[in-house]
Amino acid sequence: AELSEALFIVTFVMALAIWGISLEQARRESVPAPLRPLLAIHLSPAALFGLVAAGFDLMSLAMGFAGLAGAILVLLLIRARWLTAAGFTPFWGAFTFPLAATASLWLTLGGIWALPGVAALAGATALVPWVAWKVLRLWSRGQLATITNAAVA
């Protein structure tokens, strides 16, 4: 338990540093449009830290991470047009896991988080197959390698 708690603290400090750098990049809008969907990945650590805190039975901390995840998700939703300005690319897959992880945290906590958890789960349930379908369609048409620049690698 002591090692896992130490790792929890160390990784949280690292996440804070990464969040700070990314927030500054997003604030300056210096992230190229095709890469902006990848910013959604920053939702994952908040959700996962919350799940780990709940696993440690640190419910107040888990609730704090649930709130942080909510704030990040609201920010992502507010900036959705900016995040998706380049149109659909396989990088939209970066929206899927963070949303599912957030739904998992909120549903794990229940209470005031139950309804947002159901909404996030419904969103993830719709989003994941849609993104997968779009990526598979690009692949089947021979366009996936070109869109991801794998054709030049």
If you had to describe this structure to a student in words, what would you say it looks like?
The protein is mainly α and 153 residues long. It has helices at 2-27, 43-55, 59-78, 80-83, 96-109, 114-140, 144-147. It is globular. The model has no long low-confidence stretch (mean pLDDT 93).
Mind sketching the topology for me?
Layout: H1 2-27, H2 43-55, H3 59-78, H4 80-83, H5 96-109, H6 114-140, H7 144-147
Helix pairs in contact: 2-3, 2-5, 3-5, 5-6
Global shape:
globular
Low-confidence stretches: none
Q: Give the H and E element order.
A: HHHHHHH
For the largest beta-sheet, the strand count, sense and barrel status come to: none
Helix residue percentage: over 70%
Q: How many domain modules?
A: 1
Which structural category do the helix and sheet elements fall into? mainly alpha
Strand content range: under 5%
Supply the number of helical segments: 7
User: How many β-strands, per DSSP?
Assistant: 0
Mean pLDDT, rounded to whole units?
93
Distance between the termini: 44 Å
Radius of gyration: 17 Å
Question: What is this entry, summarized?
Answer:
With 153 residues, the protein is an all-alpha fold. The protein has helices at 2-27, 43-55, 59-78, 80-83, 96-109, 114-140, 144-147. The chain has one domain (2-152).
List keywords for this structure.
mainly alpha; 0% strand
